[in-house]
Amino acid sequence: MKKILLSLIILFISISAYAAEPFEVFARFTTVSNIEADFKAERIVAISKKPFVSSGKIYFQKPNNLRWEYLAPLKYAFVNANNKTHLIQYDDKNKKVVKDITNRQEAKAADYLNMFVNMDMKIIEEFYNIKTFSTDKESIVLSPKNNSDSQIIDKIQIFLSKKEIAVERVEIIYKNSDKMIISFANIKINQKLPNNVFSI
Known about the structure:
This protein is an alpha+beta fold. It has a single domain, classed as outer membrane lipoprotein receptor (LolB), chain A. The chain contains four helices and eleven strands.
């Protein structure tokens, strides 16, 4: 669970593909107040011939409201709102079960996700080096500053959309050579979100 959340910390970084410098790219995110989109996450591991695929929806609203909802193959969600983080699951009778995980390890991963969604460059630079930024390749590469044995991520590459202020795809490369590919579709920025989307 923790690895999945950490893999998804950079899911929605709404940034421009046309800025010449990283700080200009991050600055553009200040125009984004909320996000809604579909996601597909593919986990590629060496021991499996086929990727593990999951999909769902993500909702974000400043300052720190977040709903990360899996719809397939399993249905569950993480909701961060009002300084609380909850895990929503469903039992074999499809009855909703809600757990407060605010003080658990999973909540720390959600805090990281919020950090990236807010796109505060100063905070991000505490944890990551911005190794490259290229308008030709339309991508940003991040490498963790903590390179200890406990660090599972080797690098993160963010591919930018040419058409809108949004991320098209994110690739997380792990030190063991596993990979997570996250793709986005039906992105809506600064539009009205569904009612009670951050309720549990």
